[in-house]
Amino acid sequence: MEKNEFLLLLDELLELEPGTVKGSESLDSFAGWNSLGIISFMALVDEHFSVNLQPKQIAGCATIDDLVKLLGDQISGKIHTGSAPGSVNGR
Amino acid sequence: MMNPLDLTGKTILVTGASSGIGRETARLISQLGAHVVLVGRNEESLAETLRSLDGEGHSAEPFDLSSTDEIPRWLKRISATSGPLHGLVHSAGMHKLRPLRVLNSQTAEDIMRINVVAAICLAKGFLQKGVCASSGSVVFLSSVAGLTGQAGVAAYAASKGAIVALTKALAVELAGEHIRVNCVAPGVVTTEMGEGLLGMLTPEQSAALEAMHLLGLGSARDVSYAIAFLLAETARWITGAVLVVDGGYTAH
Fold first, then answer.
1. Which of residues 5-44 of A touch B (CB under 8 A)?
2. CB-CB: which of A15, A38, A54 is closest to B199?
3. What is the DSSP string of A19-67?
């Protein structure tokens, strides 16, 4: 999946206008990033990538780009800035 | 010594027998003397369940219950080999944690198909001449999620609430056919399905969920005891009932 497509899914998840999420934002800056939002994100990843993330992997993420990195090569056009916290495929 | 749970000579079909509550129910009722027809999608896991049963005369019937229209004909074929069925347990089920914002209609339909439509078609198949013995007991699996609100599981909860309604409707419709219809509503048990749910929660959320179960989280065996009770003579005057087996989850 293209990163832009993934960001649009996050817009929807966080109840934002399409195109709002860019990647560098802090997760804490989104009102929708609460416990149900986090579970929703895990469900979204399961639905679209058949990947079961663990809560502790997500707890290690500070920004939207950290979430993108969790999905490794499943997201194309991602930003490569070091290893992701608890990346699902170890990259 | 008399055992009111004795199922000697009874043939009972169990769906979802390749894991979890279905597998444990198959094991327990085999220990109580029943001949068990195991149903599941995974042949290897089904064979593993088969090897773990007590006694003889059991069989494994791999089948994908999402082919709901095929169920009645398929049951007819099975009973031609196994002989008339005295009981049916629909333990196969699908659980997905999907908050509403992420839930799509396909997932909702998939959940309803396995959890509810397959239950309807199994009951329809069970009713056919030659499939059900002179009397029978049907046990469906509901859930505490079908009785009380839980966030993130709307489709699953709807399916399990539907099972309660289905149980009562069929209990009335099938009483004249000497078929009892009941369901069990478990809390969270430590099966693959239960652990999948817990795996999506933070340690704090898991601890809170566990604390809601006053007697701790359950095991598949805890639920299978209730299913065996509903299958056996012990429940001969019980139909249309929802037997809650939840370690106290719904008590508060």
1. 12-13, 15, 35-36, 38-40, 42-44
2. A54
3. T---S-SBGGG-TT-SHHHHHHHHHHHHHHH-----HHHHHT--BHHHH
Choose the mutation target among A42, A51, A53, A57 for the interface with B, i.e. most B CBs under 10 Å: A42
State the pTM of this model.
0.91
In chain B, residues with a C-beta closer than 8 Å to the C-beta of A45 are none
CATH of domain A3-74: 1.10.1200.10
Q: Hey, where are the domains in chain A?
A: 3-74
Distance of CA B172 to the CA centre of its chain: 20
Least confident span in A14-28, B94-108, B143-157, B190-204: B190-204
CB B219 within 8 A of CB B242: no
The domain ranges of chain B are 11-192+219-245
At CB < 8 Å, which residues of chain B contact A? 96-99, 101-104, 107, 151-152, 196, 199-203, 205
pLDDT digits (tens, 9 = 90+) for B11-27: 999 999 999 999 999 99
Cα distance between the two ends of chain B: 39
- Rounded to 5 degrees, φ, ψ at B12 are -130, 130
Which residue, chain included where needed, has tokens 């029943």? B34
Torsion of CA B213, B216, B219, B223, to 10 degrees: -40
For residue B148, how many C-alpha atoms fall within 13 Å in the half-sphere facing its CB? 12
| Correct CATH for B11-192+219-245 of 3.60.21.10, 3.30.430.20, 3.40.190.10, 3.40.50.720 | 3.40.50.720
**Residue A13: closest CA among chain B residues belongs to which residue?**
B101
What single string gives the DSSP state of each residue in B234-246? GGTT--S-EEEES
| Beta pairing partners, B40 | B62
Residue A87 pLDDT grade (very low, low, confident, very high; cuts 50, 70, 90): very low
- Over the range B49-64, which residues count as b (16 or more CB within 10 Å of their CB) and which as e? bbeebeeeebbbbebe
